[in-house]
User: Fold these one by one.
Assistant:
Number 1:
Amino acid sequence: MGICDGCHAGCCRTFAVPVTGADIIRIRRATGLSFWDFVCRWADSDHQIAKDVVPHFHFPDQPAMPFVIALAHAASPIFPGTTKCRFLLEGLPDTAHPLGQGRCCIYLHRPMACRAFPAKLNETGELAELQSVPGHARDEAVAVYQLCPRPWEPEDLDPVETPQTLAVIRYEMAFFHNVARLWNRQPQPWTAFPDFLDYVYSRRILPVSADEAPDTEPVIASLPLVQPRTTFRAKAA
Ligand code: SF4
Ligand code: SF4
């Protein structure tokens, strides 16, 4: 039985989950939801969410405020006064599970940050390494925000899938940093963000030869890739 089986999913209640444009497009396609149904911009004035890992975006209505693009939270119908990822389905508490059991309703399509938690790439970028998870990372007085019931062990993660997931995160996050640079050159209102994402990501495939399609503009490909760190969850506000 995996460490997460039967858990109330305190992680999905505690953390703001940053998403890349690729995460957004994948979830949108799989669920039929619109951008506005599940994405929010999360103010990150003290850089607690980004921690130099995920990019900041700026918007004209609050030009000095750095924002992280993240999954939206919703009020918990079972634990009043608490919030949770809007994709977390909550089971009712019972004797064996006093905090209930949580289930991700987009498990196969969940963001890459959720897939990799709590691993990150090691310094050489070749191996995955576990990060320690605290007992609580949000309001300790609230039981349902408790995190993992025991420390993670390497055996809890798949030795093939986890490093591959981390490699994809590194690639997608580098691309998303470039997307942020492009956006921040001339920030538009938040309402323009979904169309901007569609525009940029629809230009991610280059033609066979630039000579054959001279009018196609490689919007992002000409920008240098950066190599950010590879773990990026921070506690929810
Ligand atoms: S998308 Fe799924 S796994 Fe990720 S925080 Fe939400 S409920 Fe949890
Ligand atoms: S809190 Fe820990 S054990 Fe529980 S679902 Fe989240 S990662 Fe798994």
Number 2:
Amino acid sequence: MQVVREKTFVPARCEPGLFVLTSQIKGERREGSVVGAVLLGLSLLLGGTLAAAQTAPPREWHTPSAGNVARGMALYQDRCTACHAVDSNKIGPAHRGVMGRRVGSLAGYTYSVELARSRLRWTPQTLNTWLEDPEELVPGQRMGFQVEEAQERADLIAYLATLK
Ligand code: HEC
């Protein structure tokens, strides 16, 4: 019986010291890892901001070259009228007055939220980017159509500019 008591007594006396020691070590480790995580977070944030600032230069706008209105009109009939009309909303909005109009602003047509909120204006430059790749200009927009040829875009834009 005595042996059993001693056995249980000895570790009980050692335990408080051990406990303080291990909790101190744990405490230090925890503080250390918190500081480390904060520093890591800050450096990631800083690195991310710097990287973003370096890799995202302001957009370059490309003014289309001179366009041919007659060719633009033919292209419009051929490519755009499945979804658009000059004077009425179809799948896409009506185009009369589009040049100079705020993007996504024609009353009576329900635009994607992304287009309506884009805060851009239709100019030869914005139209050029839009027709080349609508998704690049306004991510989340709903026009699934692109015009890859630069001269065709220029012709279309020249025609759109006549729709006053
Ligand atoms: C497959 C259908 C489709 C075709 C083809 C299409 N569009 Fe669109 N277009 C749309 C839709 C849909 C929208 C509205 C997009 C949104 O709300 O995100 C739109 C929007 C536009 C706008 C924005 C107008 C505004 O009021 O802000 C322009 C400009 C435009 N299209 C030009 C063209 C031209 C030019 C062509 C032909 C080369 C063309 N689209 C072909 C469906 C189409």
